Fold this sequence. Notes:
- Pfam families: Rotamase (PF00639), SurA_N (PF09312).
- InterPro entries: OMP_Chaperone_SurA, PPIase_dom_sf, PPIase_PpiC, SurA_N, Trigger_fact/SurA_dom_sf.
- The protein is of the alpha+beta class.
- The chain has three domains: 9-176, Porin chaperone SurA, peptide-binding domain (Triger factor/SurA peptide-binding fold, Orthogonal Bundle); 205-302, Roll (Chitinase A, domain 3); 308-409, Chitinase A, domain 3.
- The chain contains 13 helices and twelve strands.
- It has helices spanning 71-84, 91-117, 124-137, 142-151, 156-176, 185-197, 218-234, 239-246, 268-276, 328-342, 351-358, 375-381, 419-445, and strands at residues 9-12, 62-64, 67-69, 202-212, 257-262, 282-288, 291-302, 312-320, 361-369, 393-395, 399-409, 448-450.
- The protein has a four-stranded antiparallel sheet. Strands 9-8-11-10 form a four-stranded antiparallel sheet, with helices on one face. A three-stranded antiparallel sheet has the order 3-2-12.
- A hairpin with a 2-residue loop joins strand 2 and strand 3.
- It is globular and about 75 Å long.
Amino acid sequence: MISKTKAARTGRAVAFLAGLAVAGTVAAQTVSDNSVPSTGLDIPANMQIFGKVDPNVRKPTAIVNDSVITGTDVDQRVALIVSANELKLSAEDRDRLKLQILRQLIDETLQIQEAKTSDITVTQPEITQSFDRVSRNFKRSPAEMRTYLRSVGSSERSLKRQIEGELAWQRYLRRKVEPNVNVSDEEVQGILDRIKASKGMDEFHVSEIYLSATPERAQQVNATMRQMIEKIQKGEAPFEYFARNSSEASTRAVGGDLGWVRAAQLPDSLAAAATSMQVGQVAGPIEVPGGFSILYLVDKRQVLTADPRDARLALKQLTVRFPAGTTQAGATARAAEFAKAVQTIQGCGGVAKIAGDIGAEVVDSDAVSIRDLPPALQEIMLKLQVGQATPPFGSAQDGVRALVVCGRDDPRNGDLPQAEAIQRQMEQTRVNLRAQTLLRDLRRDAVIDYR
Length: 451
């Protein structure tokens, strides 16, 4: 089991990136006739590769239609992503990430350039305002954010560059694409009818990593995916990193997210895995047509049926922080004292006194959905009554905590989504598809000089 993915602290500013396969030296390589895929290209079945291809020999710099991307630009973006997402990358993984960051910076440059051709610009005050908002997401002031960025090897300029690219592209899409996207009433009604027909069925919010595999490569691919799972479970890199970096599925651009699906919409092997998984669990490698998949169960529910995990709670959180250098044994002993004190709580009215006795901090939160808590806490909160507290949880580094339930608003039976919400979702999906096509065309027509 792994905990739910942390919310992106900088929006897409710290999004993980698609990967790159790096080819080594090849003297001569043959491929059998029946292993050549149908690509529409004129590629000889019995081909020979001459020389070598190694993108790592290039410096990570480029000139994109006269706009320069430097090695420093790449290094600072890499530093931000690695730090913000607490990645533990090998030297090889870092090199791959650098090359992908270069491609991301090229895309940003093309997006900004295309927006400017339509007289769309983003002003410095707007960029600064967005930078300040990102800083608040990091729970820092703008000045503290600048210091943090420098400390991890990034910079304010690097983050503001990405902010500018995102804002410029969003405005371009709103002006040039969204007015031409339409969803009919009949399409929306069709979605609503299908939802009604599915009432009571299980739905799964899943993410997937897919790698193709011929029979000859099946063992190798299987071993590669097991290594991915091991790194995910050890916390060395989140699921989304491998989904964007390695997956061959079309969902790699969104971290492997398949959204909400029913079992009937998945291949049989994935459906069987999803129905037996717990929320937060990673399963695989799972054999599917053409290769293998790793599945991550983000959430599950029943269509148009109230889910107890949608209950909204009023909570008080008690926290006791440990001094720096606290050993595991010391933390365990302190946690035991904390647990004993928490067991004496009789309703939220007594929290303040207990907190004063043990030197705990108290934080109130009046609208927490059980679904938004880590899976382990979800199971506990479902069983608690108003006035009861969770067992202590935490670590030697972070201290120990407990949650006390002060109120609960149980969910009503599931309601049909509003037609307007479905229409907006469908329109946004079509805008995103048009945006992908536009960006592909911009890449095709660009003059890019790699240095």
